[in-house]
Amino acid sequence: MNLALIDFQKEYVAELLTKLLKAKRNVREGDLEAVLLSAPTGSGKTVMMTAVAEHILFGAKDFEPEPEAVLLWLSDQPELNEQSRNRILSASSMLRAHQLVVVGPDFDRETLEGGKVYFLNTQKLGRDKNLTTKGDKRTWTMWETIRNTAKKLGGQFYVVIDEAHRGMNQGPIQERDAQTVMQKFLLGSPGELEPMPIVLGVTATPERFERLIGRSDRRMYKVLVDVDKVRNSGLLKDRLAVRIPEDDQPNDWSLLAAAVQRWKVMRDAWRDYCLAQQLEVVSPIMVIQVADGSGERLTATDLEIAVRTIESEVGALDDLDLAHAFMEEKEISTSGHRIRRLDASKISADPDVKFVFFKMALTTGWDCPRAEVMMSFRPAQDATYIAQLIGRMVRTPLARRIEGSETLNEVHLYLPYFDRENLDRVIQKLKGDPETVPATEVTLGSDLVELGLPPAPVVITEVDSGTVPSTTAAPSEPPVPAIPLAPSTTATSTEEPPADESAAPSLETSEAVTTAEVETAAELEPPAPSPLLAAHLAIHGLPTYTFSQGKKLPDFRRLLKFAQLLSILHGVDAEALPGVKKLVVDTLTAQRDALLISDADFKSALEGLAVITIKPIVVDHRTFEITAGEEESIEVTEQNVEDLFRQCKQRLSDDLCLAYLKQNHHDEEPHRAKLELYLLLQQASIWQALDTAAKDRLQSLKTKNMSAIRGLPSNKRQRYDEVWATARVPEAGYLELPDVVNLPVCKECSAYDKHLFQEADGKFRADFNGWEKPIINSEIPDCVAWLRNVPKKPWALCYPYRMGGEWKPGYPDFLVVRKDGDGLVVDILEPHAGNQADAWYKAQGLAEFADRHGTHFGRIEMERVDGTKITRLDFNDPSIRARGMTLANHQELDNLFRDAGVSS
């Protein structure tokens, strides 16, 4: 795959293949089978199906390759054929353009050619009779071609019914025609088609597909994608912010101007992020939905004013910046511009377009991850269509969550003709329709408040020409670590801090502009960072844990991923991957040697693989008496050996299998090493040995390279976080703290000073419970800054704890930054009610966190509040930590608070 599958997608692709194998076995017995992939919009259904197509044609673990297989991809809208083909072509590393065939009006073959994927629009089999009627230029109808292919291939002919976009912009006649055609594939049609043996449905709503096959006797296997896994994958924007006017006065052009301003914010944020990460710059698009027209008028929305409004915010536009996706196939002229027409499916790939006008076209056959802002001039009655459109917009441009930026994980919608009641209809549609709308949080824009670091201090530099202000701003990617952290004098950590942990601060400052009379600006002392900026830098990069909803991986698989990142993708450690390959081969070789000595069954099985025993049956042609002949042994053929070796490659990887073969090949027994490896990989003990060796190598490579990894751009560091997150036992990464966060408005809440992220008035507003409030009030007077550690936010510090045999994420309530000597130190504070069921589990988790990472922090506390009395347990105290790590029940935690707690 050119486009790497996300873990949850790999999981469901594997399940799909397993269900297909079961279906194929039943087809050989004459049964009719259906397999359903039901996944919410935005989950990557086409990408998953691309992987399935690759595995069918080229093989996968436990799935033999079928090079002559055919996939017939059915959709019910013409433009979807080309769009699906283009997606598969870009995602696949194995399927070539000539293997992806869109069936056109001149198509005429007896059978579909093996090894290809055909795309067929159902309208060509319905009212359009060109493909279904013989004539002077047609030898085979499409029905005959399909029937002949099914008869020839049987269980290697896969009919894919793509319902992922059905019904979004269709009338009842179109809907009925499409369903009639689809039923022919499932139920058969006398004189045209027998029921197809294997049908694979792809949909966001399984109910419709189930109804479609309800009248057949097919067995159906379901693969249902969990919406939470999609939500947590980063494929979709975290939040949709919707904005409506607060009063009844005319405001459409004002909201358009505000939407363009938001587009500018997104444009600049993407530029800064991509340049910092050394990525191709994402160019966001703003889509503007205009009202319908009448008569000769294309639209009731004045495009002249719309373009002028855009230019008033961004400056003069080039004609290439503008496009429309109206049904009318023509260019539109305004007084200053020509607005070109652009097909909906081509918008995302167009390198120049920035603003797109449309009516309804974008609700069909269109996915545009670059669409970051939408403005709609449609009336409130069009709530359903607007919801469907948003469903096409919330994909993330880089197919992942953007680390360290809430701004780039949002999409924005402006609705000037909606009030709160009508907006609620849109939001309910967005929340409740998995067919057209992804699982994205929907929030009214006025319910959010943007919090950030306070403005940078201004330093006045006196020069002869006057004064030049120089600012020290919060960097978009703070150096890690930038502020020396005072080590705890009480903690004894099992983790060595990175080698550069004590490095001096490295703060970027903007260079002052001076006149020629100033010899050099470098002589000026850079201003010290503001206290809050210094606190931000102190927190950024601290140890934290990332919990993944996806499948956990064995250490062996994680090690391979880790080594590939280090050696191939990022060039951090050129020796990592070769060393891992040698480790794997040496481990396998040592295990083989041990088994040959100690395990007679292994040795016997190895010898048995090299030969095939046959026992002839002799029939006397006169008496028809049957007698058994003598057993004969024949050597296994090279092709049989290669079949076994291919299975090894699917389980282990091509490179590792070839490396084993190179080290263990014997000229006198050319097949032996391949047979050894096949037999080894059938042993559970071998995989356990590989995992044990991998665990130690993972830790050593992590220790060796962590400083270099932390120096990589954040998008590359995120790849390593994914490796840590898939561990069966949680592993630490490092905290990515943004410069700006968005939190719910809390108008009636108390206002607090010194919070790291502040509103415009320098305050942070929150509503704390009875044990949180006295804790933070006791800390604010003496701290430099503090942070409300909001649970489950990507920037929240997290520690792991075990409860009921399962690892869970814990989020301490507060991080407090205070002075300690010449540097800053960060405290973890976790006020917790004594009667909560998870209290002692979390206390144990904090103690274990302190044992591993205590040197990075000052206090790591759990607190209890009783009236005005606060009792604290600091797990960075060795004796408290030791008892905390061995807690077994709630009473033992109570005893620990009684014996070692410090009260104030």
From TrEMBL:
Residues 26-224 form the Helicase ATP-binding domain. GO terms for molecular function: ATP binding; DNA binding; hydrolase activity. It comes from Sulfurirhabdus autotrophica. Residues 485-496, 506-524 have a biased composition (Low complexity). SMART domains: DEXDc. GO terms for cellular component: cytosol. This is Type III restriction enzyme. Residues 467-524 are annotated as: Disordered.
